Amino acid sequence: AKRNANEPEFMQAVQEVAETVIPFIEENKKYQNKMLLERMVESERVIMFRIVWTDDKGETQVNRGYRIQMNSAIGPYKGGIRFHPSVNLSILKFLAFEQTFKNSLTTLPMGGGKGGADFDPKGKSDNEVMRFCQAFMTELSKHIGANTDVPAGDIGVGGREVGFMFGQYKRLRNEFTGVLTGKGISFGGSLVRPEATGYGNVYFANSMLQTKGDSFKGKTVVVSGSGNVAQYAAEKATQLGGKVVTMSDSAGYIYDADGIDATKLAYIMEIKNELRGRISDYLSKYPTAKYFAGKRPWEVKCDIALPCATQNELNEEEAKMLVANGCICVSEGANMPTTPEAVHVFQKAKILFAPGKASNAGGVATSGLEMSQNSLRLSWSSEEVDEKLKGIMLAIHASCVKYGTDAAGYVDYVKGANIAGFVKVADAMLAQGVV
Ligand code: NDP
């Protein structure tokens, strides 16, 4: 702990895993030696580097880039790239640590990694974003490869950025390989990859609801965020019969009592993905909706909450508000959006709660499917990928139930996901010797 004392997000992620995995280790002799957990919390490798690029005014800019190669026990390092001014070592280590367990849960052969830069894409021109991505990849290309480390998107990194980074990698290495996932369809991307995290989250929430004989039909759904994950979580929740009433960004949230249906969601996608505007712009087309500046949507009465923006965006007080308002299910689309205190509130109230490493694993799972398609040099249809995604989410749900069900029948999905994720990585590490 001392070694990482100044990395609060990383400590938070490790603490949550340790709380559930240490008792399991104590009951299972096989995992009691060889410093397994100690090895898992130490990154195999951390790369930090300078990124220098030129803005549209011709001025030189300097940013810091990172790649955390956390664990390669079960496959090449795999995990997204985040561009956000808040990016630092602690945040990326927490994400890479979570990623290791998540990737293990997908049943696919992927290790854990994460990367990014403290670059702020907001307000930057396409050309600036391109030059930044090229400068970032110029260094990163030395450390990644289709069989070594395969990055993808995350906050601030979508199809546009992945395309620019892929182009630069290809230029530098003179090879066309599946070194990144989330690529455009015309150059090796997988159908359903953009939708996968949001869809997967809703499939997972639906599996949880089914254990209670329930579903999304007729439910009021509160979504936070309005980026990639939030957009497709809202789309699938609506398709399954739910009514999505909120979406948000870092400046505030919109509330539409009539529901954000497919047509309205298409407008949000246009605002966010093409115009690169703010969620408040929604009111210019739908003025009957309300906008709450500087607020988060958890105060809105709902049956299901899907936090899909960022870490620590749902605190204890907000969790209590959700429970008091009758919320029965919280499924994390983002990574660690719920603070530990808030998770305890949900678990104490015995409502359905899914941690991101289980419920948002559909994104990386589909990235794994993209890697397979690239290796085979073929592409599967949307239906094929969606079916595989559904199957993987069901399998993750089953693993959580297997390891997380208590004597009274309540499923602690946090415990289930942590132990199921741990077992596979631990077994592989033991088999590979002291490394
Ligand atoms: P995007 O960049 O597409 O969207 C991020 C959204 O979250 C935006 O609405 C953004 O608002 C909001 N947001 C970002 N930072 C903050 C903040 N500090 N406070 C409040 N709101 C914030 O990212 P994604 O949708 O890809 O990622 C969202 C979450 O899902 C992240 O936690 C990510 O790690 C996780 N995730 C993503 C996967 C993927 O496949 N993309 C896979 C698995 C997990 P604004 O525009 O104002 O910044």
From TrEMBL:
InterPro entries in the cross-refs: Aminoacid_DH-like_N_sf, Glu/Leu/Phe/Val/Trp_DH, Glu/Leu/Phe/Val/Trp_DH_C, Glu/Leu/Phe/Val/Trp_DH_dimer, Glu/Leu/Phe/Val_DH_AS, Glu_DH, Glu_Leu_Phe_Val_DH, NAD(P)-bd_dom_sf
Record-annotated active site: 114
GO MF term set: glutamate dehydrogenase (NADP+) activity; nucleotide binding
Keyword Transmembrane: no
Assembly mode: Homohexamer.
Family: Belongs to the Glu/Leu/Phe/Val dehydrogenases family.
Name this protein carries in UniProt: Glutamate dehydrogenase
